[in-house]
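JOB MANIFEST
job_type = single_chain_structure
chain_count = 1
residues = 111
[input]
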Amino acid sequence: QVQLVESGGGLVQPGGSLRLSCAASGFAFSSSGMHWYRQAPGKEREWVAYISAGGSTNYASSVKGRFTISRDNVKNTLYLQMNNLKPEDTAVYYCRNGGSWGQGTQVTVSS
């Protein structure tokens, strides 16, 4: 079955960086488009970024220029490099493949 396991979250100061990982198994990762989403307290889950099987990327306007989505098809792992983090980036971050979601990893941006 599809498994997605996120890691790499934590507490960081404004302006700092984090790299999230999503370890994937149970499906053909290298031929699958992958997404990152996030959900802040009291808000709806929102889409953050997408990478196609071929490596094309798209970003939400709120993170464009600060976040970079990438993938390692040998390690079956999806990444989200987050730079210049802001308090409004505080959320639980999820990876998604089709109808499958990971359990999420908490990112808190605070001084």
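[summary]
The radius of gyration is 13 Å.
The chain has a mean pLDDT of 97.
exit_status = 0
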